[in-house]
Write a structure and sequence with these properties.
This protein is α/β, with parallel strands linked by helices. The protein has 13 helices and 7 strands.
């Protein structure tokens, strides 16, 4: 394991943020080995998350047989006796929902899984699954993992959010920083040329995307932090969102993300319509200049030109 990874892990334990996301693959992937090393020592600091049916897995269908086999394989590899949260990674309309949920009922009864969640479901199918659970008296999805960030909003807000409000389902968002685009480090196609995320980020490099980043930069300057922290704080402030999922490759990045959990945004900042001038610190001015934000005392004047 790289020294940087050890540093991130140590810092995560220190500040109390440690959640591992594991996608079931054959053979065991390196992150599973990381869980094996840490979970026995400090179990309370880790939550193991698994996904049924990812594209790289031969067990694509969330059928009862596939789920049971995948869970047993993961438990054996990880040398653990239970999984905290098990996600159905994607829906399969050819597999009856009652079969999938019935499989989870057996695994929960056996103590192998504690809580189940759904990812990449439509609002209609999620509601159907929740209604089946209520009707049949079997475990229901308690967590939803949708794609949601300040750029990709419509799918969650228009389709899924109404369902989770009614059924009180917890939400953990993925692509919370839009493949790091909302960190502000990608401002042109040139910035993406040497990035593994370049192809994905290129789709955000348009007028709307750049206006969103500009708004984040201005609000970040007000809070003396980075755009990524404001992007996370905005998601956390959204009613219904329990926690955003993101990743870090350095302690510095992790510090920024952790800061986002401690920021309380004013209503005008979350709606990005503030017209009140902000008091800018010297460090804030320097950061703003580095991101191309020059007008003095205007860092919170986001206005309608940059609706998020």
């Amino acid at each position: 394991m790289r020294p940087a990874s050890k540093s991130i892990r140590g810092y995560s334990f220190l500040i109390g943020y440690y959640l591992l996301s594991i996608t079931t693959r054959e053979p065991p992937c390196s992150i599973e080995l990381l869980v094996r090393q840490t979970s026995r020592a400090r179990r309370s600091f880790s939550a193991e998350m698994y996904s049924a049916g990812p594209p790289t897995n031969a067990r694509r269908s969330p059928s009862a047989a596939n789920i049971e086999a995948a869970v047993n394989d993961s438990l054996k590899r990880l040398k653990t006796d239970y999984i905290d949260i098990y996600f159905s990674h994607r829906d399969d309309d050819k597999t009856p929902l009652v079969d999938t949920l019935g499989a989870y009922q057996k695994l929960i009864a056996a103590g192998k899984v504690r809580v189940i969640g759904a990812s990449n479901y439509t609002g209609e199918r999620l509601e159907e699954a929740l209604n089946i659970s209520a009707k049949e008296g079997i475990p229901a999805y308690q967590v939803l993992q949708p794609e949601y960030n300040l750029y990709d909003r419509a799918g969650y807000e228009n389709d899924l959010e109404p369902v989770i409000k009614v059924h009180k389902v917890s939400v953990v968002t993925y692509y919370s920083l839009a493949s790091s685009f909302l960190s502000g480090k990608y401002r042109s196609k040139t910035d993406t040329e040497n990035s593994a995320r370049g192809a994905k980020v290129a789709g955000y490099l348009n007028d709307r995307g750049l206006r969103i980043v500009s708004a984040l930069v201005k609000v970040a300057d007000c809070h003396d932090t980075e755009p990524a922290a404001i992007a996370l704080a905005s998601l956390i402030a959204r009613p219904g969102v329990t926690a955003p999922i993101t990743s870090a490759t350095s302690v510095k990045q992790l510090e920024t993300l952790a800061h986002g959990t401690r920021i309380t945004l004013a209503p005008k900042e979350t709606s990005h319509s503030s017209t009140k001038p902000a008091i800018r610190t010297e460090s804030g001015k320097k950061r703003a200049r580095s991101w191309g934000c020059h007008p003095a005392n205007k860092c919170c004047e986001v206005g309608d030109e940059a609706p998020i």
